[in-house]
């Protein structure tokens, strides 16, 4: 002990201070707070979400886009696939809200119907890629060993083929007619790797947590644990990435359409490509579908950001 | 209550030559959080004189680290000093420009941070991280700095310093990193060293070495130390002056011994009563306390309290044995078969196999470790020929430092790991061969409680679902009966039933650990494996949970296999102690025998390293721990909020209150 | 370190084989008739079809075909296009152009992305952070080809400060704007990633310790915050090269650059499967190689990886 050392002599009279009890009331050890309302992780996340203006705006935009995609006919009487060369290159107004294209298509109608293509491709590709990615990533991370080696190599193989390049190869092979769902499948085929990597990572970090071990010690089987404890705890970052992926798929689809690898149905990318030669004379033709595309992608990226903030474990009290 | 008044600001001439090196007056620190401002520190006063060691003691969240960090302005961005003053060397530095603070950092005020694992930059060599401290404070540069760094590392007690300086942090053990951090903190020879829990992440023996070294070093250099710790024993051993903090306020401060021997504030009393390092005997369960109210409370008394009314009286050949018998006697009624052998201390040595719930025989676990080349692995023997018994209704503690293999043993007992050789018998049957239904039956009877309260509960599950999960898994009862059972279990662990709908993130560490206990008890197990179950908890909460575990043992006849690094806790809870080192059993015997007559050098070292063990506690029997009656909140005390058996939770008449575990 | 490199190299082999198999199967079999995939929609006599079958080894089992193909690829034989020119020859002239373009893009996204990200991360919550974040969101949301047109239209057509078409003169100066356009989406991602990484590291314990040592703010940032937070950014840039390759097709089309992307684009227009397969295979090889380099760089930056066996 250092109490015998000379250094202490510097301190004047050894005062013993005791705080008055009324200023420092003693509380019960580890008292339970029964006042706050109980809140699950998702409950708390949604509580935070509805208070986040970024979420509210992006969610409202997405709802609007969904409605437009489902019922584009509500907003226009024109058929976007019927060109009327007699009304080619009309300025906005006069029945055609945003004017017409060189082929005599109604621009407003094409923007509206383009929503349907983009959202359909985006949603299908997102759902399929998420399912593939979660299954492969979860098994790789949870089972480990050689299963992990094999699944990780498979993931790397698909990762080695970047989204647009892979889609180009698949596309050219399927030259005779590619439907909206096929394009979504193709995008999903090359777009699941980031989901798999993230799932694998989070599953790896969750599977060694004590609550999983505790569940094993209670008699739960490996698959039960994966389904009931590991996956639910690993899914939050997957949801965030899947949301952002949706935007990425929409961009990829429009890029393919721009490169002439379209589906035949009305799409923003194709319209942007068509408007390019007329950029000098009629830049607005380019602007409308671009604007729609940007709003759509922005909504999903902002939604992803908002969900990330709401699910961030660091933002939550432990 | 308060006997001495605080020295208030202005009473002392701050600029005096012999004045304090550090003087904190009426310090307020506020954090801006999303849920509004939080007053982390309120009206704190303390001073540190040149060359002395002052310890701030408190639980997590008491504001002790915050106070210390505010001195050299190291608070997180959302934290601010909102009142009071900090004077260093007579100069008010509360609101001087940041540049002046920076000039003090390192050269005048050094820091030894808490967690050695996260406080070194993993990307830089250890040596260069000290070099840069030297360069930044203008001590030395280039080759001279490198030379000085090696000297500093040597001085901090790091062997082979020259070679070590060129290594990266991940090549260092925890203790070595902490030594490097000490070298770093003292590199520019500061006059004040802030040591924030400098050893709390380390093994006791390493902790002792490092603190001894720090003591000598700071004494030689005349450095004043502001030691932040949660460990009262450690603080008392290392500091001349103690400052006790509680919920952001300083509740008591004064000479270390005086505070320890004559605490005035009820919180300090509470803390001293609960500190396991200062306790010297096994806990007595509430049941026995109630039944044998007149029994003596002294540590080596001869009278043995008897548990169950139908059990024969225990003989009196040693305190611990008698206490062990107390716990052992209760389930005797349940285990009728072994009735004949349940008499007194005799069971410790002559009990038949029928008492033995779990027997480990020559357990060995070998892990393949990656070798120098990928295709060849080097075997690492984590557990080497370990044998022990766990008797029904008693606690066997396996104690050891990190790397001793104690947790691997626990995992094998829980059959989460298969032993390489040797076997584990549960009631005489080898668990290795069990499959299907038999295995499920074993799972029901052997349950774990883990260390980390933040990892032990699934954050997605409500408390109800957490406790109900085992019942559901084993198909026990219907929804209604399960809910009744959950209520009952919550009651057992002294938590209100209203807790059911809550989620783990709303609970404190101690409360989570109680939920984990409730979950473990849901299947009415016979054996509970506690793997460092209380190690992560604050002293008071730890004390509460230990009492709870002890009471549950008496009530339900549980057998505990208690895995811990903390000898002080072992003394409170265990009947038999197994000391492990590097995978092997070093010593094995009754807790009393191990503590009072350790045979092996290693055990002796471990015992000597318990902080505060050597502090003379004048009149420990006389410390009357105030119960909640004089506490502001006590009038609306809800019985279910606190463990009713806890000495601070009620039962003012209980003669064991306070004395029982001091 | 040596075993780390060996392991990464060994792991690359199955990935390379798998990727080529994937491309091969997709290109020639996904559509059903490989002959049609090779020759497009031209009507062919049965005799010509048989001859083609033999020429392209289509009479052999799939695995054998693929092995022959891989064997050729490894020897640098990528076959000939419809015009009879060896595909490798076409790529050889195009490759340096695309390489320069990609280099400009990577340099731009890395330098500006990291600088903006660091500023944003260190000044979290201020107006500059908000502005940078908004810009990054906009850039991500607006597709590259739109940004490309607008930049070309405003800077090239209206202001005339840059050439509208790059054409044959693919000098670095002429490639500046296309490189900028190519890298701009990745710039936004680098910014966001750096920002997150910086804010995370800035609150790390070891940064506080470094501050407590008496280091200046600049020293703390450069030695302890930057290096630690740039590791994930390095990994991202490696992976992002794939996005750049897809983007190169678009950018080269907009600015009429005769790079690999435009070779690919022309092949797409002509449905020239062998060229598409060869070009994509080469791109995948480059991609795998850069990712290997990034992995090694990662090991250089992080001693923990280096020392892992």
Task: Give an overview in words.
The complex is a heterotrimer of chains A (318), B (662) and C (309). Chain A has helices at 41-50, 53-70, 107-143, 145-160, 163-173, 180-191, 193-207, 210-217, 222-258, 268-275, 283-311; one strand at residues 17-18. Chain A has 318 residues and is an all-alpha fold. In chain A, helix 4 (145-160) packs antiparallel against helix 7 (193-207) and helix 9 (222-258) runs parallel beside helix 10. Residues 1-8 of chain A have low confidence and may be disordered. With 662 residues, chain B is α/β, with parallel strands linked by helices. Among the domains of chain B are: 115-189, no CATH class; 341-597, 3-Layer(aba) Sandwich (Rossmann fold), CATH 3.40.50; 633-662, no CATH class. Chain B is built from 22 helices and 20 strands. In chain B, strand 17 (527-531), helix 19 (539-556) and strand 18 (559-564) form a beta-alpha-beta unit. Chain C has a domain at 87-270: MetI-like fold, CATH 1.10.3720.10. Chain C has 13 helices and no strands. Chain C has helices at 2-29, 34-39, 46-55, 62-74, 87-122, 127-141, 144-158, 172-202, 205-212, 217-255, 260-269, 273-301, 303-307. In chain C, helix 8 (172-202) runs antiparallel to helix 10. The chains are: A mainly alpha (318), B alpha/beta (662), C mainly alpha (309). Chains in contact: A-B, A-C, B-C. Strand 1 of chain A pairs antiparallel with strand 10 of chain B.
């Amino acid at each position: 002990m250092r109490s015998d050392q000379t250094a202490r002599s510097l301190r004047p009279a050894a005062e013993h201070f005791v705080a008055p009890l009324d200023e420092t009331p003693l509380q019960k050890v580890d008292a339970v707070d029964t006042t706050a309302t109980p809140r699950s992780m998702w409950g708390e996340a949604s509580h935070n979400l509805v208070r986040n203006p970024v979420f509210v705006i992006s969610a409202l935009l997405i709802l609007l886009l969904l409605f437009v995609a489902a019922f584009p006919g509500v907003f226009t009487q024109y058929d976007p696939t019927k060109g009327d060369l007699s009304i080619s290159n009309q300025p906005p107004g006069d029945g055609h809200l945003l004017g017409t294209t060189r082929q005599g298509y109604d621009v407003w109608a094409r923007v509206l119907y383009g929503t349907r293509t983009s959202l359909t491709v985006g949603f299908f590709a997102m759902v399929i890629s998420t399912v593939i990615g979660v299954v492969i990533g979860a098994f790789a991370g949870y089972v480990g060993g050689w299963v992990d080696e094999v699944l990780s190599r498979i993931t790397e193989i698909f990762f080695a083929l970047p989204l647009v390049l892979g889609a180009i190869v698949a596309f050219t092979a399927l030259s005779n007619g590619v439907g909206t769902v096929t394009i979504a499948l193709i995008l999903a085929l090359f777009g699941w790797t980031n989901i798999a990597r993230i799932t694998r990572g989070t599953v790896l970090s969750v599977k060694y947590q004590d609550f999983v071990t505790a569940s094993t010690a209670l008699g739960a089987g490996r698959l039960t644990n994966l389904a009931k404890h590991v996956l639910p705890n690993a899914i939050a970052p997957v949801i965030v990435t899947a949301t952002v992926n949706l935007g990425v798929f929409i961009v990829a689809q429009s890029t393919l359409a721009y490169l002439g690898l379209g589906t035949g149905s009305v799409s923003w990318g194709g319209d942007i490509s068509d408007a390019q030669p007329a950029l000098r004379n009629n830049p607005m033709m380019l602007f409308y579908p671009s604007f729609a595309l940007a709003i759509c992608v922005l909504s999903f990226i902002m939604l992803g950001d908002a969900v990330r903030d709401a699910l961030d474990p660091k933002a939550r009290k432990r | 209550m308060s006997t001495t008044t605080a020295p208030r600001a202005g009473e002392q001439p701050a600029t005096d030559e012999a004045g304090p090196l550090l003087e904190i007056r009426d310090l307020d620190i506020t954090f801006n959080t999303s849920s509004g401002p939080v007053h982390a520190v309120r009206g704190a006063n303390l001073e540190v004189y040149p060359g002395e060691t002052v310890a701030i003691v408190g639980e997590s969240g008491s504001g002790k680290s915050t106070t210390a960090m505010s001195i050299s302005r190291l608070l997180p961005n959302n934290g601010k000093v909102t009142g009071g003053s900090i004077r260093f060397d007579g100069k008010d530095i509360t609101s001087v420009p940041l540049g002046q603070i920076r000039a003090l950092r390192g050269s005048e005020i050094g820091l030894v941070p808490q967690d050695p694992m996260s406080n070194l930059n993993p990307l830089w060599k250890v040596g260069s991280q000290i070099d840069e401290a030297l360069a930044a404070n203008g001590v030395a540069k280039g080759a001279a700095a490198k030379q000085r760094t090696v000297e500093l590392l040597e001085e901090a007690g790091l062997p082979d310093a020259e070679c070590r300086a060129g290594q990266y942090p991940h090549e260092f053990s925890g203790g070595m990193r902490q030594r490097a951090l000490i070298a770093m903190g003292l590199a520019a020879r500061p006059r004040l060293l802030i040591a924030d829990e400098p050893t709390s992440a380390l093994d006791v023996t390493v902790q002792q070495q490092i603190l001894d070294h720090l003591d000598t070093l700071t004494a030689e250099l005349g450095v004043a130390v502001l030691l932040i710790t949660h460990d009262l024993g450690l603080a008392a051993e290392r500091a001349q002056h103690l400052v006790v903090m509680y919920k952001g306020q300083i509740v008591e401060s004064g000479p270390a011994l005086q505070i320890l021997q004559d605490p005035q504030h009820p919180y300090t009393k509470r803390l001293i009563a609960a500190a396991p390092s200062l306790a010297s005997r096994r806990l007595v369960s509430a049941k026995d306390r109630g039944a044998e109210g007149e029994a003596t409370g002294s540590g080596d008394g001869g009278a043995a309290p008897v548990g169950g009314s139908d059990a024969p009286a225990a003989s009196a050949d040693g305190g611990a044995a008698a206490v062990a018998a107390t716990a052992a006697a209760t389930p005797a009624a349940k285990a009728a078969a072994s009735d004949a052998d349940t008499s007194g201390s005799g069971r410790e040595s002559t009990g038949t196999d029928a008492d033995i719930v779990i027997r480990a025989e020559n357990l060995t676990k070998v892990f393949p470790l990656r070798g120098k080349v990928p295709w060849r692995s080097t075997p690492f023997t984590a557990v080497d020929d370990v044998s022990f018994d766990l008797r029904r209704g008693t606690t066997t503690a396996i104690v050891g430092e990190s790397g001793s293999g104690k947790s691997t043993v626990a995992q094998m007992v829980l059959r989460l790991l298969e032993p390489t050789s040797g076997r584990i018998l549960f009631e005489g049957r080898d668990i290795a061969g069990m499959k299907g239904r038999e295995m499920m039956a074993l799972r029901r009877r052997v349950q774990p409680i883990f260390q980390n309260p933040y990892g032990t509960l699934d954050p997605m599950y409500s408390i109800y679902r957490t406790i109900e999960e085992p019942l559901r898994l084993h198909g026990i009862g219907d929804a209604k009966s399960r809910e009744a059972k959950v209520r009952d279990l919550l009651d057992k662990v002294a938590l209100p039933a209203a807790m059911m709908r809550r989620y783990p993130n709303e609970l404190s560490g101690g409360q989570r650990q109680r939920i984990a206990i409730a979950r473990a008890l849901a299947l009415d197990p016979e054996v509970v494996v506690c793997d460092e179950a209380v190690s992560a908890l604050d002293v008071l909460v730890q004390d509460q949970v230990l009492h709870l575990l002890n009471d549950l043992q008496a009530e339900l006849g549980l057998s505990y296999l208690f895995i811990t690094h903390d000898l002080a806790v072992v003394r409170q809870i265990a009947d038999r102690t197994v000391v492990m080192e590097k995978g092997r059993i070093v010593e094995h015997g009754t807790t009393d025998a191990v503590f009072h007559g350790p045979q092996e050098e290693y055990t002796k070292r471990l015992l000597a390293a318990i902080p505060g063990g050597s502090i003379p506690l004048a009149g420990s029997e006389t410390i009357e721990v105030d119960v909640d009656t004089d506490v502001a909140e006590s009038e609306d005390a809800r019985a279910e909020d606190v463990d009713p058996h806890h000495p601070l939770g009620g039962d003012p008449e209980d003669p064991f209150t306070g004395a029982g575990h001091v | 370190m040596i075993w780390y490199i060996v392991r990464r190299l060994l792991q690359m082999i199955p990935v390379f084989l798998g990727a080529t198999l994937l491309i091969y199967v997709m290109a020639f079999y996904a559509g059903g008739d490989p002959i049609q995939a090779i020759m497009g929609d031209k009507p062919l006599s049965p005799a010509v079809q048989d001859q083609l079958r033999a020429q392209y080894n289509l009479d052999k089992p799939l695995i054998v075909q693929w092995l022959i193909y891989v064997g050729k690829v490894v020897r640098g034989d990528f076959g000939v296009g419809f015009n009879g020119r060896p595909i490798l020859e076409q790529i050889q002239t195009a490759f340096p152009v695309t390489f320069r373009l990609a280099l400009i893009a990577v340099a731009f996204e890395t330098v500006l992305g990291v600088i903006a990200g660091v500023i944003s991360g260190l000044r979290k919550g201020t107006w500059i952070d908000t502005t940078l974040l908004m810009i990054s969101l906009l850039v991500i949301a607006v597709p590259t080809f739109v940004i490309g047109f607008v930049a070309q239209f405003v800077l090239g057509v209206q202001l005339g400060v840059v050439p509208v078409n790059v054409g044959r003169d693919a000098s670095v100066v002429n490639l500046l704007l296309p490189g900028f356009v190519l890298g701009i989406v990745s710039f936004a991602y680098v910014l966001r990633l750096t920002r997150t990484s910086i804010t995370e590291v800035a609150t790390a314990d070891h940064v506080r310790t470094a501050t407590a040592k008496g280091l200046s703010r600049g020293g703390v940032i450069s030695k302890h915050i930057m290096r630690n937070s740039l590791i994930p950014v390095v990994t991202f840039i490696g992976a992002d090269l794939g996005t750049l390759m897809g983007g190169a097709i678009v950018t080269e089309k907009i600015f009429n650059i005769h790079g690999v992307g435009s070779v690919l684009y022309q092949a797409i227009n002509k449905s020239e499967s062998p060229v598409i397969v060869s070009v994509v295979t080469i791109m995948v090889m480059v991609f795998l190689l850069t990712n290997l380099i990034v992995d090694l760089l990662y090991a250089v930056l992080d001693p923990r990886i280096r020392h892992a066996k």
